[in-house]
Amino acid sequence: xxxxxxxxxxxxxxxxxxxxxxxxxxxxxxxxxxxxxxxxxxxxxxxxxxxxxxxxxxxxxxxxxxxxxxxxxxxxxxxxxxxxxxxxxxxxxxxxxxxxxxxxxxxxxxxxxxxxxxxxxxxxxxxxxxxxxxxxxxxxxxxxxxxxxxxxxxxxxxxxxxxxxxxxxxxxxxxxxxxxxxxxxxxxxxxxxxxxxxxxxxxxxxxxxxxxxxxxxxxxxxxxxxxxxxxxxxxxxxxxxxxxxxxxxxxxxxxxxxxxxxxxxxxxxxxxxxxxxxxxxxxxxxxxxxxxxxxxxxxxxxxxxxxxxxxxxxxxx
Length: 317
Fold this sequence. Notes:
With 317 residues, the protein is α+β, with helices and mostly antiparallel strands.
């Protein structure tokens, strides 16, 4: 099942993609099957297995024969759909790393293997959906880069879970673009390669310059975990149609389960929260010469079984 949030007149509504590409409105169609109105996809995840089963049955029925759903006015044609961030709320969003040694080498770091994981909290107000525009920031428009990432969506409350139990807390998977303005990255990388390490100032600025509005494209949907073999997925990032990244998100130093366990050792994770797993090689920063996003560009990140997160780039507003 592929869960989405789509725009209506006032806000976002929870839905699911049909095989036709149309969307079925889960708020209206599940009203008689759930205990109270369904407001968001995060709300659906939080209601547990029974609610998810009801949604899955509804989607399967509509896929087989959409007549009843169409008569009820539950189906929105694909051409009329504007996608938003897929959970339908501003989730807690973390990125875990460094999980890809090749990415560290590409960035010019001396380390070839990560001895331990780190975690960073992202600004949920920066989340946009597929089709929405990445806006270059007026404060730092010249070195904006892409980072295609696979992200996990939490389906059950978790804190202090073991790696053995971690994947049981995953509702599904989506795609994340960790857009980054690189103005402070060269100094940060240079300092990391020195015996003294990086200064707190440059480390902080390197992270803060990932937090501008529109810098967290997410989507296009959440594909439920029962339909995904996360270890075999391939992620491809294209800029204006040219392949820039092509890697397997499962080929990490630490397993996906270890990443979830690590995050939960610190944070209380709730349904709808998101953990992104970092990126591999193929960034604009590492090109010779470096290549950064410009107005008129389009970034498209594809993962089979999930879809394509597609975002145009526009000038500072």
